[in-house]
Write a structure and sequence with these properties.
The complex is a heterodimer. Chain A is an alpha+beta fold. Chain A is built from two helices and five strands, in the order E-H-E-E-H-E-E. Chain B has two domains: about 15-150, Response regulator (Rossmann fold), CATH 3.40.50; about 160-215, Orthogonal Bundle (Arc Repressor Mutant, subunit A). The chains are: A alpha+beta, B alpha/beta. Chain B: Keywords: DNA-binding, Phosphoprotein, Transcription, Transcription regulation.
Chain lengths: ~120, ~220
Amino acid sequence: MTVDGTPGPHPLPERVQSELLRIAQGALANVREHSGATRAALTLTCLDDQVRLDIADNGRGLDPAALPARADGVRGHGLPAIRARAARLGGTLTVESAPGDGTVVSAAVPLPPIPAEVPAP
Amino acid sequence: MTHSAPAPDAAPGPVRLVLCDDHAVVRAGLRALLGSAEGIEVVGEAAGGEEVVALAARLRPDVVLMDLQLGTGMDGVEATRRITADSGGSVHVLVLTTYDTDADITRAVEAGATGYLLKAERPDELFTAVHSAAAGRTTLSEPVAHRVMARMRSPRPGLTARERDILGQLARGLTNRDIAKALFLSEATVKTHLGRIYDKLGVDTRAGAVAVAKEQRLLP
């Protein structure tokens, strides 16, 4: 496992820190339990208006379209719970994967104050 | 032919000048042109970087008129750096070049060039600039001064190490997906980085980013 963080200009709000920690724990538990991966990387990208947490593995992958979209009544682990945590911070969760091709779970959380500028892809 | 009189604080006697250009025809033309100017004496000429550094050390001219692109071997920026350092700044380097990219200007000035002229300049402007350089005063061709001012007016924030890394992969032709795989990141995060890179470079396409990166020598 590698952790590659980009130091941000300001410390993250505590609520964001604790939710991101839970997201990391949940995503890594998924990697351990389901992926069969030999490598996982956790990357924290701190920008002035958002923070992104990527948990990537080189495991067996999954079909993102088959994932449940809602977080109702789920236990503490699992993608729906992770998605709910990201949503509580006003953020989004994306899951990029294909069968046999590893998985990247990426949480993007906006930071206050939010500048008008949103980077275009 | 008219040109400004030498500055009052210029050294007495003609300005002793060494030419450096890798094109023999250009050297001959400049020698003839400068030889016709009052108060300027061409004391030597060099075709390459190593040669002009040695010549400047031996002749100790007031001014070296320096081309930046010198074919193979040491380029004009490196030669400028050595001459300025070797002479303790007493030999002034006046850059005379075709190119006015930000990267060339910045590198030449950082290396210690006293002035930066374009080859499109009129002869009398060149003569004035030679006298100014001999007195240690800066002359910039108008388009060069314009670029310097524009750059200072809107400085571009530097790229982070990660952004440079991604830009490098972009320049090698990798797709977002390739880059994401290589860095163990999501494509969403790669796209976010690309957005920042585009903003910082003032471009809106991959090709534009690669072109600016090459022009400003942002890539390793």
